[in-house]
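Support case: user asked for a sample of complex input and structure output to validate their parser. Sending the pair below.
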Amino acid sequence: MAALSAFMALLVGMAGLGGDVTSRVNLRVAALDSAAVSWFETRAKLSLEPELGDMVSARLGLEFRLDPFSQLTSVSQLGEASRFEPVTALVGETYLRLHHPVPGLTLTAGRQLVHWGTADAINPTDNWNPPDYSDPLAWDARRPSGMLHVDYSPVNALGLELAAKPLFEPALSVPDRWFHVDNLPTEAVLREGLVQQFTGYGLDSTTARLLAGAYAINITEDYTLPVNRLKDMTYGGRARTHFSVFDLSASVIRGYDFLPTAQPEVLTDTATKTLSFTLHEAYARRTIIGGDLAANIADVGVWAEAAWSAYDDTLPEDELSVIGGLDYTLAGYYFNAQYLHGQFPLALAQTSGEQAKDFVLAAVERKFFSDRLLLRAGGAVDVKHGSLALLPVVRWYPADAVEFDLTGVVFTGGAGSAFEPLDANDEVCCGARYRF
Amino acid sequence: MKRLTTALLLVNLAAALTGNEVLDRVRAATNARDREATATMTITDKGGRVQTRTLSTVMKGDDKLMMTFKSPADLRGVTFLTTSSANMWIYLPAQGRVRRISGSAVDQGFGGSDFSFREISNLSFSDNSASQPAESTAFAGTPAWVLTVKDKDGVASRMWVEQARFVPLRVERLGSDGKPTKRIEFADFASRGEGWIPVNIKIFDLNRGSRTELKLDSLKLNTGVKDNYFTEANMKKGA
């Protein structure tokens, strides 16, 4: 281990090479007799940051994701190694950055992460990089995007940012293995709808079923991505300042939702006895006006962040997302609580009932044994329906840059609540992480 | 005869200087318009486990300070900025955003060390004042002043100052019961122009039984660091 660390330190020093390797397995324990491995991935992030002097810096990032779930479907594929251990290669942050061509100006071009907002983990004003929901427990992860970003900070108390992103990239979804969603209705569901329609017209049940059975049913998906034209790109700006013990910022972004809006269209042709179902899925164009505040009041850290999304079309409806929170440290215990009115990533699975929009998020954590052990208890409550997501963490740091995790996720909730669809997704997770 | 004169002068000064005057002389003796340094931090916990961090620091005046961890890998790029005792921020590369440090967290360990955010940002004692006269004493055989100082939050410390150069030798942070909770020792003063800069600073957490040594590996003074260096954008510049 010491030799490996020394070798890695040499590489880091010589070439600016850094790495972050994580591996985690999730064991679904909601039903112990059928406990299954629902997620098992090893992710290796590598970054190269060559020494280019004070004026210029650069970063080249690569990420490899090894998903060891076999994709074999036939004996004839046993010779195809890629089906045994599918590996996905992704480009991480890869950019060139110019520092202070004029005093206070920083210009970054390339794939990068731009984070806005002051709230903890959920930031309504943070709308540059698409969410990466592929790891269900890392619900605040983002994918880097190709963009141009300019930061002008002439003094400590003032910062101005401008950014433009030519291409749209949608959110990366959670693997189907972890949570399956049926986007399109089945033929049986649509035919049952026809039966209901015909009985509503006064036909008896038998006749309605006979008539519905005679219909041909076509199901299509109309999925469109935003057009990649100059006038359709994402752009925006932000101004930030601080005075006394307050940090403030205001921002505006012209961009898109990262998740598509689905609009079903059903056409019934009685002449040809055809039912055509089309699900139109598109990413809504919107303007987001946001602001945030962070302060230190009576030794309590407080923050608030709000974003108003005004959509070009009537669907989805314009909406306000707000989060406010505070943190406090007492006798080594760190407390953090937030109230959110808006979308909570783990609640996106909700498919029935009124969409939950109000959540209380809270956590308490403490380090023990000279910071070698971290215990954290955290969770989110769907206020309206009383459903709950708990995420406890036990983290052990046996050496610098090495972590072992024992975590879990527990969902509870009645019908129609935010976390009800995940009620069977209770999991115990074991992970390891090494950085160099 | 010369020694006698010096001794008489010291006795005379002892009678003349208040605690705040000693503090002012300390600030003047250890001051620089700005300073840039690379440093090694060695943390030894109660069980003898040793952890090493390397970091860069840029300081201007008494208030503006930016410190960036270069290693180990899990801290690389973590940057601490303070522009006054009420304004402290930390940049965590994993989160990609700068967060304000709440007042209740300023006594938490800085980078897992025994230095708290409060202590690391106030090594020049800019926040301190002394309400009582300084007393003349000896510290390890060296003529010294000892004085009780308080920071703006009322946290009291006992401070030993070398009489000859007005450099700090030891600071003991006192708990509410008046007993020391931490001890900071300053050593290996490097002469830079008219000032003396401590190259080696050790802090002992007397409750936890751990200690941290901060050693400056390189030091540049008065290089002309601008005020606009201490910005959020530069925090993100990182390692």
